[in-house]
Write a structure and sequence with these properties.
This is NodB homology domain-containing protein. By secondary structure, the protein is of the alpha/beta class. It has 13 helices and 10 strands. α11 packs parallel to α12. Bound molecules: zinc ion.
Length: about 325
């Protein structure tokens, strides 16, 4: 994805923050390519996230072609007569994705079935007696393909809290991820702070993401995993999402949303895991789809494995809690 965006072209990016907005274009000092400008704006956006809801607008000649192209992909999926694109997937894992390749094979793992009370109980980490931590990757604006390729290469499963709007932009990524047995959680459609929305808008944000995923891969759901944007929620939000069959999954280890460099973050993540109480096992790690995290993920995965800890998907983690 980033490579497609690095092609030079006139573009304007604007970040609306409340009533004001910040604009970047590539024909000023914002540098040669779009990917850099996007990551800077997203870093800015994440920094201001707690204060006000922000929306990122991309005005770029590729926008139209990207979505048209992505749309084209779905239609061109090798679908046998009468079969949905998902049908093309259910022809079983490709040769390179045999069970041996993926010890934490998500498709064999049932998603947790939680009762009403549990759905209303947000969770930051769990207590388990197995050396596992949950690896979660959020948002999905940048480098989704590269991140997926890295995880496949490292034989590491994870749960993707990709925004509905980014699922829509990346149907190829979604199909490839599902084919490699990765799972998706719900992080709303447009990353708006849910405490600032009415119940019907909260529901709409979640349902739209489910709809988009179902359009790309019929039968696939984000339930029961939900993550509130910015980690911001209140009892009304928890109640509303629980009614839709979702539990709010937060985290106890994070750090890449701030201004720390990839190098600084390497030690940061592993030291937080080491310090997690009562044990590192059962921790939930938050990261984001972005170039900086792409550089750090490999080191963190290796560091965890050196500690005898395996990073896994939320389904795998919650199944370990018995
Ligand atoms: Zn997010």
């Amino acid at each position: 994805m980033a490579e497609r965006f690095s092609r030079r072209g006139l573009f304007k990016l604007s970040l609306a923050v409340g009533a004001s907005s910040v604009v970047a274009t590539n024909d000023t000092s914002d540098g040669p390519n779009l990917a850099e400008a996007v990551s800077r704006l997203i870093a800015k956006r994440q920094a201001v996230e707690e204060e006000v809801s922000a929306t990122l607008f991309l005005e770029h000649p590729f926008q139209e072609s990207v979505s048209r192209e992505a749309q084209g992909f779905v239609e061109e999926a090798p679908v046998t007569q009468g079969q949905s694109p998902q049908g093309a997937l259910d022809q079983g894992p490709g040769p390179e994705n045999s069970d041996a390749t993926f010890p934490n094979n998500n498709s064999k793992i049932e998603r947790p079935k939680w009762d009403e009370a549990t759905l209303r109980n947000p969770v930051r980490r769990i207590i388990i007696d197995q050396p596992l931590v949950g690896l979660t990757i959020d948002d999905g604006y940048l480098v989704p393909d590269e991140t997926l390729d890295l995880l496949i290469e490292k034989k590491t499963s994870a749960t993707f809290f990709m925004l509905g709007s980014n699922l829509q932009r990346n149907p190829y990524f979604v199909l490839k991820a599902l084919d490699a047995r990765y799972e998706f959680g719900n992080h709303t459609f447009s990353h708006r702070l849910l405490t600032t929305l009415g119940n019907s808008d909260v529901e709409r944000e979640i349902k739209r993401t489910e709809e988009v995923l179902g359009q790309i891969a019929p039968g696939v759901t984000t339930q029961p995993f939900f993550r509130p944007p910015g980690g911001v929620y209140d009892s009304r939000v928890i109640e509303t999402v629980a009614k839709l069959g979702f539990r709010s999954i937060l985290w106890n280890v994070s750090g890449d949303a701030g201004s720390m460099t990839a190098e600084q973050l390497n030690g940061h993540y592993l030291s937080l895991v080491d310090a997690a109480k009562p044990s590192p096992w059962g921790s939930i790690i938050l990261t984001h789809f972005q170039p900086k995290t792409l550089r750090l993920l490999s080191t963190v995965i290796d560091g965890l494995r050196k500690r005898g800890i395996e990073p896994v998907s939320l389904s795998r983690l919650f199944n370990a809690s018995g």
